[in-house]
Amino acid sequence: MTGFVKNAWYVAGWSREIDAELRRVTLLNEHVVMFRKSDGSVVALEDRCPHRLLPLSKGKRIGDTVQCGYHGLTFDCSGKCVRVPGQTNLPASAYVQAYPIVEKHDIVWIWMGDPAKADPETVFDMPEFSDPNWAAHQGDALHLKSNYLNVAENLVDPAHVSFVHPTTLGSSASENVPVHVRTEGEAIVAWRWIRDAEPVGFFKAFGGFAGNVDRWHYYYLYTPCTAVIDFGSIDTEKHCAEEDRDQGVRIFALHFMTPVTETHTIDRWMHLRNTAQDDPEAADRMDAMFRKAFAEDQEILEAVQQEELRPAKRRPIRIAIDKGPLVYRKRINDLLELERTEDLASDPSPAFVYHD
């Protein structure tokens, strides 16, 4: 397995998942205890008392502090020990790690790496979140028995839609349509248009199209674990240009992947839509179709994971559609390498003179 990039923002939960109760959350193979303070803000602490290692989530809250359930050591929201029953001195080593948190658009983000590098301005955002012409709806937290790399690669791969989702998001009309890939910039992007084709099941349900449509899929993968799928349809006769996709029925499916362990990933998915905003039942009906499609993905990804855990007989092959996933893997490896090493050559010794 590759490992986890720690210096990045990950989704710890939807806002509705975190309340005043102490809750254990596992991310990147680490246990964290989370709760809401009396002022409503979210706290995340290492879920292990430094004394006898009992999880703090098995203790109790006392105001905005957490008391260990074994011997009563009590920690504030910064992770500092503020009480050791039976003694007045507080050892400097009696602390737990506190993790930076940002709550935005009803999503709770956590930073598992170096706190000094946690910039709230780099939390993922889209203008559509704040645009009144778009409706936002949070879906589920899908638990996948699969490594996060496989889950992420699936979300920058338009080619699988024709075969895995033939009744919901794809059809045979797109099987041989070329996929375009762009790997420059913040996101890896893979996309294609299927022109003058019958609408797929999703847009038969929500587009109200009577005839053929032009439809698109744009897959954006942001390292390490955020994916946005921009897909939609418009009447073929309108000859829609790529930059005019808002004129059609357009959906953004967002996937926030949280690696739990090497073989367990939580995919929290939601959507933004420019259609059916006045229909109170639209979000639920869309959720039903998304659940069907994502269950199809789950079956594939978990089967792949099982095979990856078995002894390999030969090296796997790569084909043309794998350009995006290959670049993604390289970006992950580059980030992991940066975290494994410390750059001590930023101020070179006078013994070395550089001429480039």
UniProtKB/TrEMBL annotation:
- Domain Rieske: residue ranges: 9-110
Question: SUPFAM superfamilies this protein is in?
Answer: Bet v1-like, ISP domain
Which terms in the Gene Ontology molecular function aspect does this entry carry? 2 iron, 2 sulfur cluster binding; metal ion binding; methyltransferase activity; monooxygenase activity
Report the record's Gene Ontology biological process terms: methylation
Keywords noted in UniProt? 2Fe-2S, Iron, Iron-sulfur, Metal-binding, Methyltransferase, Monooxygenase, Oxidoreductase, Transferase
Database matches in Pfam families: Rieske (PF00355), VanA_C (PF19112)
Stated name of the protein: Vanillate O-demethylase monooxygenase subunit
